[in-house]
Amino acid sequence: MMAQSLARKPDDQRAPLWAFEFPKRSVAEATSAPERAIKSLIGAARAGKEILPGIGSGLWDVIRSSQIGSGEALPLQAPPTPFNVDISASRRFAAQSYSLERFRTLGHAVGATVNDITLAICAGALRKYLLAQNELPKKPLIAMVPVSLHDATTEGNQVGMLLANLGTDVADPVKRLKGIIQSTTVAKNRLLKMSRLEKMAHGMVMMVPAAPLMLTGGARKHPMFNVVISNVPGPKDTLYLNGARLDEVHPVSIPTAYLALNITITGYGDRLGFGYTACRRSVPNLQRMLDYTHESIDELEAALLVGVKTSAVHLKPKRSQPPSSRKISSNKLGAPKSAAVKPRMPRTGGVVKDTNVGTSKSKMPAPKITVRTKGAAILKQAKLPKRKVSM
């Protein structure tokens, strides 16, 4: 939709997205009622033949989820985490883009796909975040990865799913990456043997226990999976809107109940954009994920690209907007002055947005002074000098 509504040349004038006329689908030739009924029955019979095996395989995955050492990531094997809680109406969004060539280079070094590399980077960032929160479980986190089933013969959005073991219990980034490759390979090989409708039925049946667990609150202790990680392909050409160039694309997704964090990666040109969307109350300090993502990329490059020198410019991601500042609580007036504590800002210079819905009004904050430093903006409490009044 984005690629269709924007132009590939600066001088190409296009209507805005809400006024753009998308190509209409071809209208099928008119047929008589008996012919339509016969075709519908034949289609239903063929669909049933494909759907039934998918229903069976999905039920079998749910039943055998209690088995240990099967080598596959199965539903209900995920450990409870701070991400698997109920959510509020407050949101926080953090995003950063990176060079796609870095991910391709890492993939070539170990024989992995770009999707596997992005999963490994997300796994490293999640591990660092949970360690900082003292909430890292002993069991590895399980991610649900949507898989597109759309092809040239189908219309609309048709999505399946696979489960991936993120290996967050492994400290070595290379071993963690190899475990992720093994997990996704097993899941992909199973899906390759299924037809399109069978894949859809398999994914839908696997999600059947999710509804009762969410309604009863059991999803907190027994989550189906811990986090959703989507990798959405984007346009490869540079896009324009009435001469204005589209510089970056930051994907925004939707957290849901007992899935308080959503990670979406999307491509645009030679960049990959990481977007973290979460409940601000359930997942505090989400902006730290930008730091942890950058550190995870550096760790993999240091471990896999031995002897390959990467320039400082190559390591530094593209800055899209100035990083937002965190609030610092100040001492009360008259209290002894303590050492100044600088807030930890995302060193990657990403985008951090807050939305606060349904919160009560707070008192008017004291005046603050914004001090610009080389790396970040620091908020300091303004101290007004006392006036002497002569009588």
Overview of the molecule:
The strands form three sheets. The protein has a seven-stranded mixed sheet with strand order 3-2-4-7-8-1-9. Strands 5-6 form a two-stranded antiparallel ribbon. It has a two-stranded antiparallel ribbon with strand order 10-11. By secondary structure, the chain is an alpha+beta fold. The chain has a domain at 44-67 and 77-315: Chloramphenicol Acetyltransferase (2-Layer Sandwich), CATH 3.30.559.30. The protein is globular and about 60 Å long. It has nine helices and eleven strands. 32% of the residues lie in helices and 17% in strands.
Helix and strand arrangement:
Elements: H1 2-5, H2 33-63, E1 91-99, H3 100-110, H4 114-132, E2 142-148, E3 159-165, H5 173-192, H6 196-206, H7 210-216, E4 227-232, E5 240-241, E6 244-245, E7 261-268, E8 271-279, H8 288-304, H9 312-315, E9 351-355, E10 368-372, E11 377-381
Helix pairs in contact: 2-6, 3-4, 4-5, 4-8
